[in-house]
Amino acid sequence: MGSIGRGVVTVVTGRRSWMVVLLGLLLGAGIMVGLGEAEREPHPTDAVPAGADSTRAVELQEQLPTEDTATAIIVFSADEIGGSLGDLEQVVADLDTGAEGPPAFVQPAEDGTAAISVVNVPAKTATEVADSVAGLRSDLADAAPEGVEVQVTGPAAVRADLTEVFAGANTTLLAFTASVVAILLLITYRSPFLWLIPLTVVGIADRTAAILATQVLAGFGVPWDESTIGILSVLVFGAGTNYALLLISRYRDELRIHEDRHEAMAAALPRTAEAVLASAATVVVGVLTLLLSLTPNTRGLGLASAVGILVAAAAVLLVLPATLVLFGRWIFWPRVPHVGEEGQARRRSAWRRIGDRVAVRPSAFVGGTLTLLAVMAFGLTQIQLGLPASEQFTDKPEAITAAERLAESFPEGAADPTTVVTATEEESAVEQLVADLEALEPVGSVSVGAQGGGVTQLNLVLTAASDSPDSQAALDEVRTVTAEVPQTHVGGTAAEAADTADAGARDRLVILPLILGLVLVALMGILRSVLAPVILVASVIASFAAALGVSWWLFTEVLGFSGLDPIVPLYSFLFLVALGVDYNIFLITRTLEEARAVGTREGVLRALSATGGVITSAGILLAAVFAVLGVLPLVVLAQVGAVICIGVLLDTLLVRTVLVPAIVLILGERFWWPRRVERVRQVGQVGQVEAVQPAAPAPSEAGRHRES
Fold first, then answer.
1. Closest to 156 measured CA to CA, from 99, 209, 106, 195
2. Rounded distance between C-alpha atoms, residue 556 and residue 549, angstroms
3. Strands of 149-153's sheet, edge to edge?
4. Mean pLDDT taken over the chain
5. In principle, which of 69, 336, 541, 662 could form an S-S bond with 365, CB 3.0–4.6 Å?
6. Cα–Cα distance between 202 and 199 in angstroms, integer?
7. Record's PANTHER family (predicted)?
8. Are 616 and 543 in contact (CB under 8 A)?
9. Measured between alpha carbons, how far is 519 from 532 in angstroms, rounded to an integer?
């Protein structure tokens, strides 16, 4: 450790550590009071790929000389709607939506059980859309004739319901996350006092990270949405608490050696910092790869996550140790550590006993573990990506149920028309475009919408629902026609879904290999090894494949969904590789430390004994925190949370406990290739250093270490 590092440790763990705590509190309070979270209004292009055909359609629509409005579709339904048509026309005529638009009309369905009307509502902001749709629904409920059910769907209603879904969602998510962390910390430490310290420090770090992240995003002009801060909170609480568990575990061990708590923390902090900084570096490098995504909101999540991890690591390495040393050993009550007690590494703990059993037949454990992971990953052979709009919410909002009712009596595409936007100024070219589109078999009708500024919008009602496979085939036919007309683009839900799927495939092709490469290079730099990082990254990939395979089966066969959202593999792979490798880092850095004294094989067994409890606690906590994403009503977040939860548990309980130690036991010193581990031997009172050469294990090595 350099002089700067030693100076920081002295300041943080010394007698004046209270100054660090005070400075941290003042800095956090200043950021929360002085800055606050940056605010921005969502833009229609935030969630669609840059440069895509549907994105260009949205950009052309913005050139139309119309006020900011959105379309709402009113759905009336009854056993027999015909006798109420006059009353319904009067209801619609009396509506005051606050937005200009074509004269309202009521169109009955051929089956006589439903009718629809199309109106515009103000849409300058998401809040205005939500308020307008809420007011429209209230007015219609009061004015609807007896026996007629009325619902509102269409783009405006979907946007309003999505806004309502996230109203207070981040607060709910934060409350659930903090509660889960508090309960698990209380169970882990079994102390009525100790859990409060890491929870408070990480909680302040979470709020600070949310503010700094949104300010950085706003400063660089990178979009973000409501889910970004929710995922950020989960990430900061999960990673921050993991780092805190590691620090406190090492501090407890050092209190068994040092009488003075400041000296104990001065010994624990540098050793913990090595693992925490290595972990934070891999996570930051991993999440920053999202900046290469074609989707603006995904880029925002990557940058926000990097800021959050940096804040979490800084809080745990600076503020938490300074806070802990303010208190005496009593903070651990009733399990107070005393000088002279045996440390975790040398105890015959349950983790050491597991390690000893693995050491008897490590090859068998490697084969059995890989077979189990392969069986769990079998679901990957069946996986399908794509989640229809009707399955996007855990509780269907009115916009979705109304669209389903509309599809029973009208062409399925009527609830969500496809738009064709053209900047062609020649009227004859527009007329020919309309004729060509009407000639397509999957197109039910074409109507001319808003015009002006040299831009014309056409509304197409497809015969298939916008989220069905048939609509994608119809979209291909529409785009074949529009491709022949300059400055003409296709938008709407079906077009955006197709473009998003294509962009997702491109992102996975570019980002996933890059994540692996960067994490691999980071581990090589940290461990100064080639073989060890390759093994660690490969083990995490195996966990991811198994977790995704099990999640596919869970969501499709058990919960009845038709597939996984296209973003799930990217997000879950990113966080699993970046965070899952943490547990291997914690284990292997401790193995390296122990190997200098007793060799790699005994070192990994001691490391497993020393870190088994804390890593298991950290893994269960992180898995539980990501599972909390399921409290949000979006299915995509529940799916991401489930994959990460399963993957982290596999990493913690199977890969780190059995697979990696077994591989290390088989390879011995060769595990570090091409690095040579400096072995410290005690000769009398003088410590000597011996370079340990990579060598093949002796046939009876495992058995000897089992007896050690």
1. 99
2. 11
3. 107-108, 114-122, 69-77, 149-153
4. 84
5. 662
6. 5
7. MEMBRANE PROTEIN MJ1562-RELATED, MEMBRANE PROTEIN YDGH-RELATED
8. no
9. 13
Reported as a single tens digit per residue, the pLDDT across 460-504 is: 888 776 666 677 788 888 999 898 888 899 988 888 888 988 898
CATH of the structural domain 1-34+168-341, one choice from 1.20.1640.10, 3.55.40.10, 1.20.1250.20, 3.90.180.10: 1.20.1640.10
C-alpha to C-alpha distance for 168 and 180, rounded to whole angstroms:
18
What type of residue is 661? P
Sort strands 455-462 and 418-422 into parallel, antiparallel or unpaired: antiparallel
Question: What is the maximum alpha-carbon separation in the chain?
Answer: 105
DSSP H helical segments within 528-631, as ranges? 531-553, 568-598, 600-627
Cα gap 51→358, rounded to integer Å: 53
Please give the C-alpha separations between residue 42 and each of 121, 154, 473, in angstroms, as whole numbers: 17, 18, 30
> Do 247 and 611 form a contact (C-beta atoms < 8 A)?
no
Alpha carbon separation from 550 to 140, 404, 707 (Å, rounded): 45, 30, 38
Q: Give per-residue pLDDT as tens, 279-294.
A: 888 889 889 999 999 9
Comparing CA positions, the residue from 76, 156, 161, 635 lying closest to residue 398 is 161
In 3D space, the residue among 603, 583, 593 whose CA is nearest the CA of residue 359 turns out to be 603
- Which of the four CATH numbers 3.40.190.10, 3.20.20.300, 3.30.70.260, 3.40.630.30 does domain 396-498 have? 3.30.70.260
- Fold topology of 66-165: Alpha-Beta Plaits (3.30.70)
Q: What is the rounded CA–CA span in Å between residue 380 and residue 643? A: 13
CA–CA separation, 568 vs 574, rounded Å? 10
Helix (H) and strand (E) counts for the chain?
24, 10
pLDDT tens profile 504-513 = 899 999 999 9
**Do residues 247 and 9 touch, judged by C-beta distance below 8 A?**
no
Give dist(CA 242, CA 619) in Å, integer. 8
Residue 237 near residue 579, CB atoms below 8 Å = no
Closest CA to 72 of 150, 145, 158: 158
Q: Which residues contact 135 (CB under 8 A, 6 or more apart)?
A: none
Q: Is 428 exposed, middle or buried (0-12, 13-18, 19+ CB in 10 A)?
A: exposed
Amino acid at position 205, single letter: A
Beta bridge partners of residue 347, listed in sequence order = none
Instruction: Give all strands (DSSP E) within 96-155, no chain letters.
Output: 107-108, 114-122, 149-153
Work out the angle at residue 212's Cα, subtended by the Cα atoms of residues 210 and 43, and round it to the nearest 5 degrees: 70
| The pLDDT value given to residue 374 | 94
Residue 599 and residue 669 in contact, taking contact as beta carbons nearer than 8 Å: yes
Question: Rounded to the nearest 10 degrees, how much is the dihedral formed by the CA atoms of 356, 359, 363, 365?
Answer: 10
For residue 348, pLDDT over 60 is answered with yes
Structure tokens at 311: 């804040």
Angle at 577 between CA 573 and CA 582, to 5 degrees: 150
Q: Is the Cβ–Cβ distance between 647 and 688 less than 8 Å?
A: no
Tell me which of 3.40.50.410, 3.40.710.10, 1.20.1640.10, 3.20.20.10 is the CATH number of domain 354-395+500-708. Answer: 1.20.1640.10
Q: DSSP characters for 387-408? A: --GGGSBSS--HHHHHHHHHHH
Binning the chain into helix, strand and coil, the percentages to the nearest 5 are 65, 10, 25
pTM as predicted: 0.83
